[in-house]
Design goal:
There is one protein chain. This protein is mainly beta. Helices cover 3% and strands 38% of the residues. The protein has one domain (5-400): 6 Propeller (Neuraminidase), CATH 2.120.10. It has two helices and 27 strands. It has a five-stranded antiparallel beta sheet with strand order 1-20-19-18-17, with no helix packed on it. Strands 2-27-26-25 form a four-stranded antiparallel beta sheet, with no helix packed on it. Strand 9 (139-148) and strand 10 (153-161) form a beta hairpin. It starts with a helix and ends with a strand.
């Protein structure tokens, strides 16, 4: 997929990437880069704690916030998993949620999840939401589009959904990422852990089924249709929306406009969380190859790699539970330009991931946050933000130079 210079410039301007930080504790971790030998693994850096930055809490008292997006006027939209869409303007949270949000199934990992605005929002006012819809016994991931009039969502319609209903409240995926050509990637989880089944077998096996949207990244036009140049568009035995497959549960997607790359972080089971360089048409192996282990029991697979399946750039064991991913493009913090920032729910941190020119990981820093990190984004003015996943004490935090 080729992108023009103008598309890259526009993408860098609208990308909703980010980061946040309290204190940076730098310690050893069981982190491996499987493309290398274990002795050459990309370990957590032992460098000194970065200095010269302060953490500022912009908003507190959020209830399970999941995602954030900036409007052209500088205001911010924040989703809360229970089904509320909030507006923050000039650092103040509007006490009244935005009306017109669809009914969601708020249970387990499900609820109102990602929010994103159209690249031409100033002209069309389109806001996109991902969410879980249905009941505990029959639910699915949906993508909806609505017009935002400044106070409410209008004319909301579902533009895409997983065709197969599943049970339980696990693995909805749900990150949205806009590409410079105006199409969007949406991450869809594999549906859940054992014993959840679909069509007589463990539901996670749907990640290898090209007729299923479970365990995939899909690429869509802005109306939810499948682009004609998708990798499986002419394959009569595959869903034409599929862009990549063999994923467990991606909750971090980021675009590198410098190298035209898509990065993804996905949850493993017990250990085996992954950072992947995502590419069209590729198979990322789940559950045929994995570093994960069963929550109760032994190995999911004895295979760590296989011909025709893409190996992750980094595997995190113990699990960090990665959620929210940003590629930093700003000159506001020059030393971080070109780095990835991955939030962690279990690890309660952000990982700064140093990349070389070829996309291999040179090292990492563990940046302690102290709460579950749900989202990481870069604001339009180049500052770095994080959402923490608190139950009534969720925070929106900004990382900034002292005295800002």
């Amino acid at each position: 997929m080729k992108f023009s210079t103008e598309q890259l410039r526009r993408s860098a301007g609208i990308s909703l990437l980010g980061f946040a930080m309290t204190a940076c504790s730098l310690t050893a971790a069981n982190t491996v880069a499987p493309a290398q030998s274990p002795s050459d693994a990309a370990q957590i850096s032992s460098a000194q704690t970065p200095q010269g930055f302060q953490q500022t809490t912009i908003v507190s008292g959020l209830e399970r916030p999941w995602s954030m997006a900036w409007l052209p006027d500088g205001a911010m939209l924040i989703t809360e998993k229970a089904g509320r869409l909030r507006l923050v303007r000039n650092g103040v949270l509007d006490s009244t949620p935005i009306a017109g949000v669809p009914e969601v199934m708020s249970a387990g990992q499900g609820g109102l999840l990602d929010v994103s605005i159209h690249p031409r929002f100033a002209q069309n006012r389109w806001v996109y939401l991902t969410y879980s819809h249905g009941t505990q016994s029959a639910n699915r991931t949906r993508v909806a589009r609505a017009t935002f009039d400044g106070k409410a969502l209008r004319d909301l319609r579902v533009i895409f959904e997983v065709k197969q209903a599943k049970s339980g409240g696990q693995h909805f995926g749900s990150r949205i990422l806009w590409l410079p050509d105006g199409t969007m990637l949406v991450a869809i989880g594999d549906g859940g852990n054992p014993p959840v089944q679909l069509e007589g077998e463990l539901i996670r096996k749907q990640a290898q089924n090209l007729r299923s949207r479970l365990g995939k990244i899909v690429r869509l036009n802005d109306d939810g249709s499948a682009p004609r140049d998708n990798p499986f568009a002419t394959n009569q035995t595959a869903d034409p929306a599929i862009w990549s497959y063999g994923h467990r549960n991606i909750q971090g997607l980021a675009f590198d406009p410098l190298k035209q790359r898509v990065w993804a972080t996905e949850h493993g089971a017990r250990g085996g969380d992954e950072l992947n360089l995502a590419q069209a048409g590729k198979n990322y192996g789940w559950p045929v190859v994995t570093y994960s282990r069963e929550y109760f029991g032994g190995e999911i697979s004895t295979a760590r790699s296989r011909s025709g399946m893409v190996s992750p750039k980094v595997v995190w064991t113990p699990a960090t539970a990665p959620s929210g991913l940003a590629f930093y493009t700003s000159d506001r913090i020059p030393a971080w330009k070109g780095d990835l920032f991955a939030g962690g729910l279990v690890s309660q941190d952000v990982r700064r991931i140093d990349l070389d020119e070829t996309g291999n990981v040179r090292g990492q820093q563990r940046i302690a946050i102290g709460q579950r990190v749900r989202d990481v984004r870069q604001s339009p003015d180049g500052l770095l933000y994080v959402l923490t996943d608190g139950s009534g004490d969720g925070r929106l935090i900004r990382l900034e130079p002292p005295g800002s």
